[in-house]
Design brief:
- The protein is an alpha/beta fold.
- It has six helices and six strands, in the order E-H-E-H-H-E-H-E-H-E-E-H.
- The longest helix is centred in the C-terminal third of the chain and has 22 residues.
- The chain is globular and about 45 Å long.
Length: 162
């Protein structure tokens, strides 16, 4: 499971190009309900699936679990949305919980650029080491989430020479 910071709408493209493997991203459900037929169709064709961010979306969690069992890569932005003002990186626990329950490793990644993301600006993607939870418990998921947050912060700082 790929877990990255989220600085722009172009992040899924940047991550997909950096991995050279298909990534199935979760995206906020509003993209599928409020942005019309063409956006919904485009996202569906790209393998993106909706998640309701305001609730415990069991449908999305079950879909992600099934895809992980099939060996697919799931992309999640554990900050919960676009966050341009970083650091510090703060993550929500959903990705770590899904990882712990499915016994799937997390691969931390950080995307950064100087200034805003736009054409002809260098965008860098840095990957950390995969990490797993000790078991499928809620406690293990909390610890994994803290480790993910720390690793994303470290990758961010290394990329900025801090």
């Amino acid at each position: 499971m790929l877990c990255a910071n989220h600085i722009s709408y172009f992040d899924p493209i940047c991550l997909g190009l950096a991995l050279w493997r298909p990534v199935r991203f979760m995206a906020k459900s509003e993209f599928f309900t409020e942005h019309g037929f063409f956006v919904r169709t485009f996202f569906t064709m790209c393998g993106v699936f909706p998640v309701r961010r305001s609730s415990a979306d069991t449908v999305s969690v079950n879909k992600a679990s099934l895809l992980l069992k099939k060996g697919k890569i799931i992309g999640i932005f554990p900050q919960g949305g676009i966050v341009r003002n970083i650091p510090p990186i703060r993550t929500k626990a959903g990705a770590a919980l899904l990882s712990a329950k499915s016994r799937t490793p997390l691969l931390p990644a950080v995307i950064y650029t100087e200034g805003n993301v736009r054409p002809f600006v260098r965008i860098t993607v840095r990957f950390g080491q995969p990490m797993t939870a000790d078991d499928g418990s809620l406690r293990a998921a909390r610890i994994l989430n803290q480790r993910l947050q720390t690793e994303l912060q470290k990758l961010w700082e290394e990329g900025h020479g801090n």
